[in-house]
Amino acid sequence: MTDLSNDYEGEYPIRVEGLTNAFGDHRIHDGLDLKVRKGEVLGVVGGSGTGKSVLMRSIIGLQTPTSGDIEVLGRNMTHPSEEDDIDIRSRWGVLFQGGALFSTLTVGENVEVPLKQFYPEISDTLRQDIARFKVRLSGLPDEAAFKYPSELSGGMKKRAGLARALALDPELLFLDEPTAGLDPIGAAAFDNLTRELKETLGLTVFLITHDLDTLYAICDRVAVLADKKVIAVGTIPELLALDHPWIQEYFNGPRGRAALVAKGDPKLDAAAQVNAECAVPATAHSDNSRQTGA
Ligand SMILES: Nc1ncnc2c1ncn2[C@@H]1O[C@H](COP(=O)(O)OP(=O)(O)OP(=O)(O)O)[C@@H](O)[C@H]1O
């Protein structure tokens, strides 16, 4: 793996070394390395089927790797002790692609599930109060706590899933394509919420996305999955300077250029900015335009 900005001396709450995953003869990862920095939003990108979700599932212990080492918050995830396993699972929150809410429970009850599981001793009243607070923290109105998932819009479902992911005051937040299926305004609002929560709660965020606007708007660094590995991890300007064909196509393709222009970040490489402005008609950029690299 090419770590493009290796001047960092802080902690790595997630370390993956030599990860190999295979389903039968189908090898998904082969010697994949990745280190996530404390307090960053790390975007994870790659073509469809490159194993982004399998990587996330391996990190949170839902997928047993064929080989390799995974350490989360200092604990070995490949061979955790039972005690470690319970402790570590209470220190992260996960928003799965479809939200994964229990359809027969209200939003509030969904948020209560992890609280009941990890803190069975707390009273019903306190648990309900915490759940309502998390619902509000996720930008939902109070009354949403009493609704069933089927009564919510797609954006509200994502927020409800986020409320549940935040139930235990996690240090790590895993988001699998959080803006997929949202309208541009809803997606931008969800991006802002993620960034705000990361800053106020001091979260480290592992974020799988195809959404180029999300990458530009909220990711501190981006890890690129290709050829069964993380081929590079760095800021977008650092990635743009690389010569890899997939990275060039992804970030410098029409959608990538439009997202770059939309972002208009002065830190981005000036030459890339000029190229982008030449290549993208002015009408391609509006406040509501979102670009996916899918
Ligand atoms: N439980 C499983 N059994 C067999 N194959 C699986 C399993 N889970 C994932 N795969 C395969 O692993 C590969 C990677 O899947 P994964 O869902 O991680 O891709 P992805 O990069 O997240 O894709 P997308 O961007 O389309 O969501 C795919 O070919 C998928 O079919």
UniProtKB/TrEMBL annotation:
Keywords: ATP-binding, Nucleotide-binding, Transport. PROSITE patterns: ABC_TRANSPORTER_1, ABC_TRANSPORTER_2. CDD domains: ABC_Org_Solvent_Resistant. Residues 14-252 form the ABC transporter domain. Pfam families: ABC_tran. Signal peptide: none annotated. SMART domains: AAA (SM00382). GO terms for molecular function: ATP binding. Gene3D superfamilies: P-loop containing nucleotide triphosphate hydrolases (3.40.50.300). InterPro entries: AAA+_ATPase, ABC_transporter-like_ATP-bd, ABC_transporter-like_CS, P-loop_NTPase. PANTHER family: PROTEIN TRIGALACTOSYLDIACYLGLYCEROL 3, CHLOROPLASTIC. This is ABC transporter ATP-binding protein. It comes from Novosphingobium organovorum.
